Amino acid sequence: MAFKIKDNILWVGKIDWELRSFHGEEYSTHRGSSYNSYLVRDRKIALIDTVWGKFSGEFVENLQREIPLESIDFVIANHAETDHSGALPELMRQIPDKPVYCTSNGVKSLKGHYHQDWNFQVVKTGDKLSLGSRDLIFIEAQMLHWPDSMMCYLTHDNILFSNDAFGQHIASEQMYHDLVDQAELFQEAIKYYANILTPFSALVDRKIREVLSLNVPVDMICPSHGVMWRKNPMQIAEKYLEWANAYAENQITIAYDSMWDGTRRMAEAIARGIREADQVVTVKLFNIARSDKNDLITEIFKSKALLVGSPTINKGILSAVAALLEEIRGLRFQNKKAAAFGCYGWSGESIRIISDKLGEGGFRLMNDGIRQKWNPDSEAIEKCILFGKDIVSTLA
Hints:
alpha/beta, 35% helix
């Protein structure tokens, strides 16, 4: 399926309704996704990105229905990750001498993936490629989110092909942001940011301001995944600026795992204490082992504080809790507070382990945590309620 974006521009990508995990099994995609590729016609013709390799045959076949492949003058590889470049080998077998425009890191990545020495043309920020009455202007976006990433801006039509920035994992026959469910759209957009771009927030802020400083009109933003932004397209850039600056809502997330319900009961008592002390704050509880980790990470991203609980097992913590702590360590959330809790039978190391891991992840510890022995009795539950109230006082 291809469709017209403007008279001279076609979307020639692939909608993947079946996708339920991405980056291997690392990212959940409940609503599928799309791999967006764009064909720009002028006196010269440019193809911007391809699709995931598993759809390469279908992609090339569909592209041939729109244009003779030899008529393509330039291939633009904004990003070498295989969900964007996977159809390049199949395409380049048909047009082996056509130039492939990418960053210097893009050459390294594409050669690393496909072991081919195509006709690479290295570009950097500010370089222009004339298509005739239009130019493509290249903008390097290093580490957003790979070293090779770049965007390109199409003059005359005022379109920013933004690559992974401003994307979402959504499959839809309505490929414009104003035609889809807005709650779903922004839920997927913030999830995408929280799970993928959070570690690069300082770079996100800098790059968006760099693009804004070019002072060029942007009538449409066309990302590599999900729907395109056409009505007030810069609204998503404004959201990114907000998310990139130590974002937090008035929310506290309590994440835990439990063996015999003791730590669960502590979590619920702590939540009760928080609610008794502050009727306005949003409190959300998640059993880590039974929750989608990417949805949970999104909630942590939205929170001003995170409480993590685990019982002690073999002088350590439960595996689901350990996995989450490792994940958020790499995400490097900014300006968030945290504390640990859990029950134990005889050794009780979980509180120290969780606190240390939270500290490594950049969280500011509010206290030394709370632990209760065996299954908490009524006195222990009261202590947990007070602990929740103290959390509110600390955050005030």
